[in-house]
Amino acid sequence: DAGVTQSPTHLIKTRGQQVTLRCSPKSGHDTVSWYQQALGQGPQFIFQYYEEEERQRGNFPDRFSGHQFPNYSSELNVNALLLGDSALYLCASTGTGFTTEAFFGQGTRLTVV
Amino acid sequence: KNEVEQSPQNLTAQEGEFITINCSYSVGISALHWLQQHPGGGIVSLFMLSSGKKKHGRLIATINIQEKHSSLHITASHPRDSAVYICAVIDAGGTSYGKLTFGQGTILTVHP
Q: How confident is the model at residue A66, as a pLDDT?
């Protein structure tokens, strides 16, 4: 049973560019949450997708957007990249119910130069 | 003040020592995760608990809901336990939908 998979694992982008990160949830999970982890910090909630809609959102600008597909996989898009967007982006999946255990992907390390 | 506070931020131990990491939170929660993160980034959930105590191998997690406090203990620590340990809570609010709020992490280094 595959866990949560994220792609790519690393990428380097230039300021102003756009990036798309991908996440496939654990089998049986229908909810995907995205988190940003700056170096030396705890992860910060970006948004959560359920039933192909953004169900809730953290304190991130509209440059951060997402999508969830019918197979529950999800994308995180960031437009007009800033140097400060450099971080580890983590995807977590959970099943139905608000207290099911979260499973995390390995993360995507984004570097903006 | 952060909603989730961990202590200590950095912890160095000798192999074999008993280790305790503490987590305090200020909001009502429905559950709490203890997570482990190795260099390279991937996060693994060690425990999810909402009351009492859980044990897995050399790891023990406890939670006191009334005091809004949880601890992670590692018995007979080993260099392979070296990692960042993160406490994360699920807000009890009806609109949290299982969103996690994280502590800043505790960097544990165990020397041989």
A: 97
Nearest one of A44, A67, A98, A72 to B48, comparing CA atoms: A98
The answer to whether the CB of B71 falls within 8 A of the CB of B22 is yes
pLDDT in tens, B96-111: 677 889 999 999 999 9
Is pLDDT above 80 for B93? Answer: no
Largest CA distance in chain A: 40
Are A73 and A105 contacting, i.e. CB atoms less than 8 angstroms apart?
Answer: no
**Dist. CA A105–CA A112, nearest whole Å:** 21
A81 contacts A94 by C-beta, under 8 angstroms: no
Q: Smallest CA–CA separation between B77 and chain A, in Å? A: 23
In the block, residue with structure tokens 């969830």: A68
Phi and psi at residue A83, in whole multiples of 5°? -55, -35
Is the minimum CB–CB distance between A37 and chain B shorter than 8 Å? yes
Do residue B98 and residue A109 have CB atoms under 8 angstroms apart? no
Report the chain B residue with the minimal C-alpha distance to residue A3. Answer: B44
Q: Quick check: A57 contacting B, CB < 8 Å? A: no
**pLDDT tens, position by position, B32-90:** 999 999 887 789 999 999 999 999 999 999 999 999 999 999 999 999 999 999 999 98
Helix or strand holding residue A23 (H, E)? strand A19-24
Q: How far apart, in whole angstroms, are the C-alpha atoms of residue A113 and residue A110?
A: 10
As given in the structure block, the two tokens for residue A64 are 């951060």
